[in-house]
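Mods, move this if it's the wrong board.
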Amino acid sequence: IEGFRSAQMHGGPQSSLIAKSSMSMWRLLSELALLSTVSCNSSAGHLTVGHETVTETCPMVSNIEDQQGQQLMQSLTSYSTEQAIVLDHVNIWPSKRRVQVMQEHVNVTADITCRKTLNAREISPDEVCPTACPYWAEVAGDSSCLFQCVPKEQCGKLDPLATIAEDVNDNKQCRHPSLTGCERYSKKWNVEECLVCGEGSVLVDGKCKSKFRWVWWTVYIILGSLVFFIVLWYVHLWCRPTTNEEGIEHGLQHRKRTRLHQPRAEGSNERWLWPLSTNLLRVQVAGPGLSLFMRFQLAIIIWGALMAIAWLILSYSVSSDLLQLGAKYKVNTPQQMCSVTAWGNATTKAYVLVKFKFVVGVYIATFIGCIVFAIAQLREFEEMDDAGTMKDFAALVTGLPIVKGDFEYAEVQLATRIEEVTQQEVVGVSICWSFKDREKEVNSILQDDILRAARMRPSYVPSTLLRLSYRKSQRGAHPPIQARASPRSPRITEQPQNPLSRALLNLWPGQIFTALDRSLGCKDDLISDEDLSPRGPLAVGGVQPRPGQTCEAAFVESIESTGQAFVVFASEDSRDAAVAATEPLENRAPGLLTPRSFAQNTKGGFKLANNDKSTAHLQAINCEPDTVNWENFSVSKTQAALRLALGICCIILAMITWTCLFYLPYAYWVTNAYARGDPPRFIQTAIFSLQVVCGNQLMYFLCMQAAFFARFRFSNTTEMTYMALYFMSVLVNLFFDMAVTSYLSYQTMVNIKARSDSGKLLSELSYVGIFQSYPMQKTLGNFVLWYAFPSCFLLPFIFEPVFAFILPMHLSEQLVRANRNIQGFDAESWLGFPSPMDTGRYADVLLNATIAAFAFLFPGAYVLKLFALLFFSHLYIIMYDHYRILRAVPGFKLATDKVDGCAMKMTSIPTGVLAATVAFKYLSLPAEDGHEVPKDDWTFVKYIVGAFFAHILLHVCILDWIVPLFSRSHEITKLPYEKVAKENPSSWFSANPVHCLRSKYLKGDDPPCHFFFIGKEYLLQRNPKIGIHFEDPVKCIYK
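Not the wrong board. Structure tokens:
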């Protein structure tokens, strides 16, 4: 009979004896006190107690020194000699003294006869009734797991309500009728028929149907029609003739150029893609933040592998049942539920101390590992940050007076004043302008300027962009330009030859699809030169130009400053000296030279003029030019906080709506799947996985929108906020899902009268007792595994490349191919990469780590599975991200460790789950050796929740106060600004949209400062007078 019972010895809680036999033998073994080793070698025919062979046949007793051991062996002689006990030696770790555990199996056949009352907790779950009476029937009443074997026709004799004779996976049982929504059943034998339905249901042919089933029919019809319409639209689109080869060519060329490329080698005109073999852990492809991002993913993979290996070693050192506890038996009948519950509770109690010590070790190792890894990340970032970049030369000036855009010399005046105050060379000033509400107009002018720049540099520009530029230009352009820019004749098939294609194009569905294309901004006919002419700001912004003034100049003059600006110095030493010179007197370095007029300013800062009321302050910054959200500097920090709060409220409202509309109806429906311990069906599993994936994707979208809606000034802050919001949202979803599923599982266990090992019904137990009971542990462990894989660990990352990259890009190509007016920037927008790089993967990784950390709360079978699945799933994820970064996203830069620092603090949550698990396991230890078991639920909750939040507080405090102590000093770059600017197309001037417009339309710089568009670096022209040093000497080829 397969089953376990444990007996704690008087020698200490570390000693235990486990054996397999019948229930009466277990009760005898529980009296054992001083023995540390008991084994039986059936082949040799002797029994060993301690290290001493005591008999030639197992049931006999001789030469036993201790009296209690003699009593035990004498009791064993009462058993039949046919009961051959086979015992293996397995070491328990850790313990003060090695204890041999008797494992493997007992070849004892249970005495099962017809109509004999048996306690299901004392027999194997695999036992079957004799052929003459093959059905298990439970004895009615409040008895504890008592069953009899009866013939089919006697179902209902022991329990008048159990009239249904059912064969479930070759396990025959007499059960109660079970129909959804039924309150009173027919008393006909073996007929599952309802007589009275509950509220919300109607009786139809003996079954209860929901009154609201028409709602589901409507939903199915709508979804089916929508899918059919989308498929038909795609077929129609695919059948349309190719009319826009030029737009396709231009958009695809631009998409290739926007990917991450290696720096151009000296003397070469080619920029190659980074090879797929690039080590993103070390090579700065897109800033040091990307390397930290990839290292974080690798750390989670290593953690998952170590946890799986450690649990595997423990299981093989102690007992293989640790790998089977919770999943060894499938439960199909109430008899099996009782038997498996008895086996599971006994095994859990036997290894509770071993698992507690293991979880303590896991928690300590994980906690220390998180701190050490945070230090390693900090040191790695500081090492990579020593390389000279644009942020090393810039400082942010705040507190400036507001000026109008018509003040042509605003930058020059500010630069001159800062040079006077700091005695340091200033390269230039990039003022932050207020154009949040005029972003479209600014972008429109910048795009038109790019086309003008293309006409000025025909040898640099791709032919497709040059042709569009020529069509937008005035007639009679320079002959060489006109000759090179003359449009080619695309291959256009006016009508498809396929009859099905012609039918789809000519009938009414084709007309609907054409209207749909128009609503998306696609037209059928070629666009005219008038339509291609740039739309001036006069029509959009309503700014009236003065006589002789261009519309663009009038528009730029109408923009006001925000009182902030970036000052660029000639070297990093100059920047640091300037910042130090404007600090308060007590913070200045000793001997720092400052102008006489400024030396008396003890409060720090400076004034642009003596009569200015406001004081400007200078501070170093930690960001790159292309990570600045220039349009958001008109939004104050208070406004950003309020907008973020509004976004969070929208996220909470969306979570409540999603729960009420989708999850709760599903949870109610799936409750029946847990009846009699049955696992959910495939369709229920698929729908649940789809709900989890869609719910997380909804949170992904809403959190990203909330972060952008806040309008932070730096993209690093936006990314950090988005990551934190996303992680907390999906974490709340996880806890809510577990709470609801726990309640539904409990109600199901109560309905089938599941009992604990003591024989009590679950409804009679406390909340903690319910959670500790084996039926709930098994159900919740299965739910966590089900929730994790594939819903969270794998499916989202399989769907992501399909729905975020492959499908959108394919549909975009088809739309551009069939619509001739999508040209130039429109084609670039349609055919660009649909999903830019973001740091939301931090949240995905942390969520999966948190789910895996819950494994130690549940039976051991789920520990190895969860961590092994975590390991293999994240191997796929990191390989997918590696390819996505190098081939499938537009250029980006993660310049700081701000997002990674936030993610390191978020690791306190999965580690906090481990701390709460340690507290729970400690409180679940047997009451002995002075350990008091709490008797009320509140004490359990208080200690567990307290351990969780106490760890988070300790973890964050260490990261904030201890980890920075391991920081090292920054090495000042010796490179001058000019050399660094030669290698970086994005500078503090070319990344500022309004600064570029002022350079051209107000200051008349020649060449002007062109705005930096990703993929159009070849249009930038060198002008050292205004701080622009980047220029491709020849036409740069992207490969």
